[in-house]
Specification:
- Chains A, B: It catalyses: Release of a C-terminal amino acid with broad specificity, except for -Pro.
- Chains A, B: Pfam families: Peptidase_M32 (PF02074).
- Chains A, B: InterPro entries: Peptidase_M32_Taq (IPR001333).
- Chains A, B: Its cofactor is Zn(2+).
- 2 copies of one chain form a homodimer.
- By secondary structure, chain A is mostly helical.
- Chain A has 20 helices and 3 strands.
- Helix content of chain A is about 65%, strand content about 5%.
- The longest helix of chain A has 26 residues.
- The first copy, chain A, folds into 2 domains: about 140 residues, no CATH class; about 350 residues, Neurolysin, domain 3 (Orthogonal Bundle), CATH 1.10.1370.
- Chain A has a 3-stranded mixed beta sheet with strand order 1-3-2, sandwiched between helices.
- Chains A and B meet through α1 and α2 of A and α1 and α2 of B.
- The complex binds zinc ion (ZN) (2 copies).
- The site of one zinc ion has 4 residues of chain A, from α10 and α11.
């Protein structure tokens, strides 16, 4: 009997080569391309995406998937076929008309948003956004109709694209705990920090020097420059493939620490990708599990490694060497400067203690919007009301620093936001497990030794790929599912007990 | 009646988008990619090339081309269809087995050549090279069999891929003139230069300073950084698409002029590409005509613009500003240093007066090799004999600086070499026409004004694309076909009369 699995493997490997092309052409677009290259690049990317989509939804693949024997007793193969079917069925349940309409509406809404946000023009934005929401509701309905048993609500089908495996009920339960316990902690932290002045880390830090510093940080965090690059872009991001992980950061002449944090963050994302199981290269089962885990890796590198006192002690001489203007700064000063907490309007500038509320607001609004519990016109008031309730500040009619501040919704990326806070919780939970297994973790970090951490992550998360579901990964690695207590404990230790 | 031309236009535009992806992924491979990215990249490029080839030789395209009415009285459309048919017929006349075998044999031969050349290992090289030549002869025979009326010899079919429109008989006639008249000129030049010492341009020139200098040169030559980039690679090259022309150069800490020449050269290539007719974007008729013209543009920028006394006078202050270590150098010293002539073994290091002989040797040998007049084992002796006859130096058994020095043959790129010297002649011929039309050209260059040159090139060459044949372009622009007299006159003026 012919093996019906191997043709599938070859099919997906070929698909992954088109994906490779799209990945690096997009990277080039963001990082290298001169402005006038944009017309030809957009057309090339559209052609490749269409080729990719056409091959993914082809009858040929559908038949291969139907014929394959998934009742084998080889668990690896069962997992691989399960993930293949997931990718295929996510793609076929949408008509190409809907996909195209969403692409066009999303691109227009995002493009005009840049100016509209600037102008605080909510009405103008709402005009375009209405079409995006309409199409995303259609998308959610179509996905829901195809798999009514798998999803609790239409919104869950969009959530599943980003937070695969963590449904809206589970996330709601986690967030409810945060809403209950975080305000009290936050109040104490603010009270506590009122006693001390924020240290001033500003200075003149030439970009070339910062570049050197950031590369050194990546080396210290275990990044391999034979398998990746560091470049500059307006918004830090990471992308690539095995052996070629590319991250970006941005530099400000008067602030070096922000860019260090961004670089540590993206190094975490890149480390996950480079640690994925080699034997499944090109197959869905070899991909990162979901964004809640992806973000847990980046936040672990950013908040649980770089931003600890022992690691900063270790890294301080490198900072002094690369940036002579920092010679008067101690590790403790850096730590104090980078761990200030203050409620504010803008999510991307929020500290780790207030960030969850920014996410919860978005989660609650987008869920109800997609599930047709609320309408677009309700958003500004809901936003203001939730901001006042959770963070004690009002946005009023300052839409540009309120409900218009993020890009995510403009092109219809609903279901993405929860991963930020799920990732923060997961990262605290993983760190707790690692520290429990390595009680000398502070000495290790102070000596610049992070191998034990990378090994733990490789074994428990990276090399697992998508062979099991996300909460199984949490369970196996930490003994329980995503549990906000770890995150709350982390905040208490760092901000109230002044530990690490 | 339905228009049968538009579907063809759309078909080729789609093909050009796959080409776009290949172009920029290859650029990235050469310029940006970390070493470990190479495995995934090679697979992605192979997949894209296969996709491109499959779509190009498809029955669908064959039928579209058969059905299209090319007896229209619209000359633009006639030209466009002619070029489409040329691209298609070049691709379909080879079996995919032959294409694949050639790719594999070429890759192996090129890869091992790097070490074999180092080891002066002719026998080892000949082993791999035999397979490459065998397959290229098959290729030439297959192309010849399909179009026996269009080509004089099998070699002409390979020549046609690079020097499209300039056949081996025509090139032979041009080269015969050079073989007759160049030796006498060369002898006089050497005699004349014996009187003077070569000025020493060596010094310490930091790469960052050189980078700034090279960018300034590109700006002076009319390069638009909104439509392109300058980067670094082991061997300078240029590639890209409309609006995104990317050139590379290389830097040596002790020599700045070589990298300037390379940058001017590649700026010429990029200017041609960016000047191609916009209305034919994505269509074969909108492409550069052939390499004899492409190389004429690069050599014109390198030898007829940068390397003239008036331009160097204009540019000297920029050199002094960017490279303080050059402050003692005058424009005349630079010019004298960069216009030294001396027969030598290595083509890529040859001056413009001896370069043609390096090309003639290769042309005569590769032609006879593909047409089965000689065999691989004859090459070393022929090389030595021709080097002695044309340049008065013997290679003997120094194969690595003799017949093993170039990469071109290793992967079967026969028919490429002649374009270097045809390009040099064309560039002298175009310059003569421009100078005749602008008798004040030296004052213009001394003022840094090159607009009149770019305008002439745009009108006469760049914007013509492939709408007419190469020698028609020469005829229209200069009143005659490629004529070596212009090149010989250029050498006499520059090296004997000590003009410009
Ligand atoms: Zn992230
Ligand atoms: Zn060239």
């Amino acid at each position: 009997m012919a093996d019906r699995y191997q043709p599938l493997v070859r099919y997906f490997q070929k698909l992954s080569r088109i994906e490779h092309a799209i990945t690096f052409l997009q990277w080039d677009h963001m990082v290298m391309m001169p402005p006038r290259g944009s017309e030809a690049r957009s057309k090339a990317l559209a052609e490749l995406s269409a080729t990719y989509h056409r091959r993914l939804v082809s009858d040929e693949l559908g038949e291969l998937l139907q014929e394959v024997e998934d009742k084998t007793d080889n668990p690896e193969r069962i997992a691989s076929i399960r993930e293949m079917k997931k990718v295929y069925s996510r793609a076929v349940c949408l008509s190409s008309d809907l996909v195209e309409a969403k692409t066009i509406a999303g691109a227009r809404c995002e493009y005009q948003w840049r100016q509209q946000r600037n102008d605080n023009d909510w009405d103008g934005f709402a005009g375009n956004f209405r079409e995006v929401v309409k199409l995303c509701r259609e998308e959610a309905q179509a996905r829901f109709a195809r798999n009514p048993d798998n999803f609790a609500t239409p919104y869950d089908t969009l959530l599943d694209l980003h937070c695969t495996g963590d449904d809206s009920g589970f996330i709601q339960a986690v967030f409810t705990r945060l809403k209950r316990d975080l305000p009290g902690i936050l109040e104490q932290v603010l009270e506590r920090q009122r006693e001390t002045k924020r240290p001033n880390l500003a200075g003149e830090y030439p970009v070339a020097q910062q570049q050197q510093l950031n590369k050194n940080l990546m080396l210290s965090l275990g990044f391999d420059f034979e398998s990746g690059r560091l470049d500059v872009s307006a918004h830090p991001f990471s992308t690539g493939c095995r052996g070629d992980q590319r991250i970006t950061t941005r530099y400000r002449e008067n602030d070096f620490f922000d860019s260090l944090l961004a670089t540590a963050h993206e190094t975490g994302h890149a480390s996950y990708e480079n640690g994925l199981p080699r034997q499944y290269d090109g197959l869905p089962v070899g991909g990162a599990r979901n964004l809640c885990l992806h973000e847990s890796q980046s936040l672990l590198f950013e908040k649980q490694l770089l931003l600890t006192r022992p690691f900063l002690e270790f890294f301080l001489p490198v900072i002094h060497r690369c940036l002579p203007a920092t010679s008067h700064l101690s590790a403790e000063t850096l730590w104090l400067g980078a761990t200030r907490v203050a409620p504010s309007l803008i999510r991307v500038e929020a500290d780790e203690a207030t960030y969850p509320f920014h996410v919860i607001i978005r989660f609650e609004i987008e869920r109800d919007l997609i599930n047709q519990q609320i309408e677009i016109d309700d958003i500004p008031e809901l936003w203001d009301e939730k901001m006042r309730r959770y963070l004690g500040i009002s946005t009023g009619s300052n839409f540009k620093d309120g409900c218009m501040q993020d890009m995510h919704w403009t092109d219809g990326s609903f279901g993405y936001f929860p991963s930020y806070t799920m990732g923060a919780i997961n990262s605290a939970q993983f760190s707790a497990a690692i520290r429990l297994a390595h009680p000398d973790w502070q000495e290790q970090l102070a000596g610049g030794n992070l191998d034990f951490i990378r090994r733990w992550l490789l074994e428990n998360i990276w090399s697992v790929g998508s062979t099991i579901e996300s909460q199984e990964i949490l369970q196996k690695a930490t003994g329980q599912k995503t549990n906000p207590d770890f995150f709350l404990d982390h905040l208490k230790t760092r901000y109230l007990d002044c530990g690490y």
